[in-house]
Design a protein that fits this description.
3-stranded antiparallel β-sheet; Immunoglobulin-like; 41% strand; 13 strands; 13% helix; mainly beta; 1 helix
Length: 196
């Protein structure tokens, strides 16, 4: 009996040693893999706005009631009012559209209002012209112009002109108020981020 007990003890010890040896063998083939890293998102901005409203002029006899000004948010030129007395008078001003953002901007929409007249019903608004041109050009622009303002430095100067036609033979018998003089530009991203 003593002998069989010894065999059992030796058998158990042999089994334990075998298990330890197998565990050590597996431990010898263990490997840990790691990936480390960081990323940075660079500062980017979209900033197309009005700037440099200049050359606010009226012809002789006409007068500004309220001169145009760039509003504090720089995306609106606001509430100008001009008075004409006789045919041939006009009012105009220049302004820049500037891109200081980090993406090129493309002119994709442009709406220039159509003058509407109220007051003396005998006076027709076809006696008024309202044009938006690029500085140095006499051709009215449209959205099809597709002007591109480069990132950070792109600038385009425009001239807005309201004229009481010189050849008008229709004189109002009472004051005529002219509305519909809004202009809306739409600029859209053109391409990817541009490195400064």
């Amino acid at each position: 009996m003593e002998k069989s007990r010894n065999y059992v003890v030796f058998g158990v010890l042999a089994l334990v040693v075998s298990l330890v040896a197998v565990s050590l063998a597996y431990a010898g083939f263990t490997q840990t893999l790691n990936i480390n890293g960081t990323a940075t998102i660079k500062t980017a901005s979209w900033d197309v706005h009005f700037a440099n409203l200049t050359n606010k002029s009226v012809s002789t006899g006409a007068s500004w009631v309220t001169e145009p000004v760039i509003q504090s948010n720089t995306t609106q030129i606001g509430d100008y009012n001009v008075t004409f007395n006789t045919p041939g008078q006009s009012a105009s001003f220049e302004f820049d559209v500037v891109n200081t953002g980090s993406f090129n901007a493309k002119l994709t929409g442009l709406t220039v209002g159509t003058p509407t007249c109220s007051g003396d019903t005998n006076f027709l608004c076809n006696q008024i012209t309202y044009t938006l041109t690029k500085k140095g050009s006499s051709t009215a622009i449209t959205a099809a112009d597709n002007s591109i303002l480069d990132a950070y430095t792109g600038t385009q100067t425009y001239v807005l002109t309201l004229t009481y036609k010189a050849d008008s033979t229709v004189l109002p018998g009472s004051d005529v108020t002219i509305g519909g003089l809004g202009v809306q530009f739409t600029y859209s991203q053109d391409g990817n981020y541009v490195q400064p």
